[in-house]
Structure formats: C-alpha cells, structure tokens
Amino acid sequence: MQTRDKMKLGEILIQQKILTPLMVERVIRIANATHRRFGQTLQDLDLLTDREIAQALSIQFGYKIVTDMCKFTIPPEVLRLVPVETAFEKRVFPLAVRDGKLALAMADPTHTDIINTLAADLNMQVVPFIATTQDIMKAVSKNYLGESLQSPTNSILVVETDYRAREDITSSLAREGYTVVAAVDAADGFQQALLHLPSLILTAKEMPDNDGFGFFTSLQGVTETRHIPMILLSQRSSEEEEVMAFRRGFFDYIPMPVKDITLVSRVRRALAVGRSYVAHYSGGATEPAGPQLI
Fold first, then answer.
1. Which are the contacts of 26, defined by CB distance < 8 A and separation ≥ 6?
2. CA-to-CA distance for 66 and 61, rounded, in angstroms?
3. Beta bridge partner(s), residue 92
C-alpha cells in the first residue's frame, strides 16, 4: 500500500465508530496545541487503549497484529539479530526468521528507519507486525533480560553517570525509606524506566551518550513513561537552563550538589503530584520529527 493511499488514523477511528468526527477534530486541536502526536493525545486523554490504537494502526498500515508474545519461545539466534538496546529504544521485538525474512513486532510502524536499518544490516526482508508497547516490553524483558515486566511501582529511578553523585543521591533517598533504582546513563535509564515504571525519575543533565533533555524526550515518546514526573539535576546552576527545563516539561530543576533536606523535600513534592502529572512539552526546534498518525 502506498503512503498516499493510507487512511488517516482519525478517519479509521470514525469509520470504526470508535470516535465521532467532532471528537477527532477536538483531539487534533489539543494535539496541535500541546505539540503531541494524535495517537499519543488519544491515550493521554484515555479515549483509546493501547490495543485499540494497535487495531487502528493494523488497519492503517495493513500489518497483522501479534499478541501474547511472552508465550513464544524465541531461539537465541533470532534474538541476536536485534540488540536489546535497539529493542528497548525502538520498541521492537524479533519474532522469527523464515525463508530469509525477519518477522518484527513494532509498537510504532511509522519508524521505518529501523526496518530499513535491519534489512540492510541483516541482508534480509523485514516483515512488520503490530503489537502494543506493553506486550513488546514484556517479551523483551523475558527473552533478553530473563525478568518479568513489573507493574508500576513506588520506586524512584536515579540516572547519574558520576558514581559518587549517584551513590550520594540513592543513599539519601534510601535512608528516607524509598525504594531506589539506579542507572548509569540514559540508555540504562531508559531500560530501567520501562522495566520498573517508577513513580519519579531524577536524571543528570550531563551524560556522555545523551543529555537529560534527550533522555526526557525519549521517555515522552512512550505511553507508559510519559506521565512520570522528572527532575533535572544539573552541575551548572544556570537560570537559562532552569527556564529551559521547565519549558521542556521537567517537574523540577535542582542545581548540584544538593543538601539532603532539599533533595528529599523536592522528591516528596514531586511524588505528591504522582501520575496525574502531564509534561507540557514545548521542544521548539528540537522537537522530535516524525509523521503525524492522524
């Protein structure tokens, strides 16, 4: 099917009588005003579930839906075709290889870059399937990490490259009775966030592979993590950076080093907001590009 022939997601939802034309029009207005994609806005407003979005994407792209992937036994040689870092970042999962074709579960079929990259690197055709993010993460956790994907927890994720700073923060929070999960960089933090679904994330601004702003943007692209409040920890203590942090959608900004009493009070305030928090992302020129699913 050519791209120009694809029905827009809103049109499909109207055709399926899931939404009315007026509701679609209003959601589009909200999506444009908040710089969010149409499908993401639907989920933020609790108008559609992940499975309903997957069903609509299946119709839009003509791909089959796959479910219950945790029940599959995936050979190690198939798992090695897609690195675990790629599986987490792109929300994809290798299902099988048959007749020189790789069956690949995808949460977002608009990510054609991963299809093209895998096809070129593996010298095989990639056949996409649609799956929900949660189903993919469950399969990735079980098959790559040997762990079960956890339900949302009351834990706090601390993402900090500097060993001493990371230890100081985690120790301070642990003394207050919090369950703390630590990550050494943005890539590790992304995996831990999806695995544990913490109640709060504290992230360093300065990291080698991806800074705190990039890490924030990555989590905003995932339904399961975009409502988690995030606090930016910075060594700069700059007013401009603080303004940028709030504009981008961080719940709070803390210059480092920080006293224990200040850290704990800021954490308590963020946890009090909980998952009702919605980051109003306004990335401007740095907003991630991608086709709108409408």
1. none
2. 14
3. 106
